[in-house]
Amino acid sequence: MRRQIEHASVTLQGVNPALYRDLALYLQVLREHLPDAVEKALFHLATRLHPRRYCELPADRRRGLHERAAALVRQAGSLFTVEQLVQLAAALASGRQQRQQAWLTQLRAVAADSDHDAGAGAAGEADGSVRLSLAPPVAMTWWRGHEAWPAGGDRGEAPGGDPPDPSPDDGPDQAADPFAEIPAGHLREGAPPLWDSGLLPREPVELLTWLDGIERALARRLLDLSHGLNAELLRAGLSHSLLPLNLLEAALSGQLEQLAAPANLLRLQLPVPDPLAGSLESVALLLRTADLELDYPRLRTCRSRLQRHRQEVRRMAERHRRLRRRLQALEAEQLWRQDNPRYRQL
Predict the structure, then answer these.
(1) 108 three-class SS
(2) Structurally, how many domains does the chain consist of?
(3) How do residues 46-78 score in pLDDT, each as one tens digit?
(4) Which of 4, 181, 287, 293 could be disulfide-bonded to 222 (CB atoms 3.0-4.6 Å)?
(5) Does the residue 181 lie in any domain?
(6) Given CA atoms 153, 156, 158, 162 in this order, what sign does their dihedral have?
(7) Does the residue 267 lie in any domain?
(8) pTM of this prediction?
(9) Which helix (H) or strand (E) holds 270?
(10) Which residues of 290-329 are buried (b: 16+ CB within 10 A; e: fewer)?
């Protein structure tokens, strides 16, 4: 059985180069089509959704909008490589582990406080009494910040809030840059061992986790680019509100009800305090891999190759888990017989 597990690792090691090439090709095609996809989304937003606002913009603001948007796309496009996504996936995985550890620490602290309170009040309470408290089970001050991302910051305003004063000196270089390149080895200290090596994992279960991390990192880069472009739309005056990053992320995960919109655009109906004011809509740029692959057949072909690799890795991972469980059961049975002389004769 051990030989079967080792054979699966050797087989996967031979498949990994093809998987890496297809992943690199997908990202290359994505970099090629990304400027055109952003241009189409901005064109539709400016000429179909907000034509009056765009016509009222001075010529210098319109030129500045196009130049800064193109610069953001070029800057973000340089980060759509396998190496950069691996670094970002490591940072995201490290942040997730830190949040889980903080959550467990909070639960242990709550349990310790409950035991202390129960011991202190045991003398004055009857058996079987129930203690009621309005305090939350965990400190909500920590929970409000549990979704902070390691890379980039949320510069967003609340929907419908007052837009910041557009200053000519307040450009992308003056704020926290969400498209900053992560150098090799950076943010690796707290990263899981899966991301320590520069090679693809040789175990199918780990490789499946690795692929999921790459997908999360890719979605995060597209989210950062969308947020940066939305900030430029607000700065130019083409948009009057800036949706925060956590709201864009919720839309990506399907947690928000969205209105029909063209590719790579997000339309949301925002609640208003006055029912007589009618509905209030907010439109923002939101780059999605599904929309990009739908518009560009070559990118869709690359995705289908990656899906075939994923399906093969998933089959290997399921078989690997079964073999591992059987091997552990046999090892446990052997140890049981060693620890119990009565079973040695069976």
Answers:
(1) helix
(2) 1
(3) 999 999 999 999 999 999 999 999 999 999 999
(4) 287
(5) yes
(6) positive
(7) no
(8) 0.73
(9) strand 265-270
(10) ebbbeebeebeebbebbeebbeebeebbeebeeeeeeeee
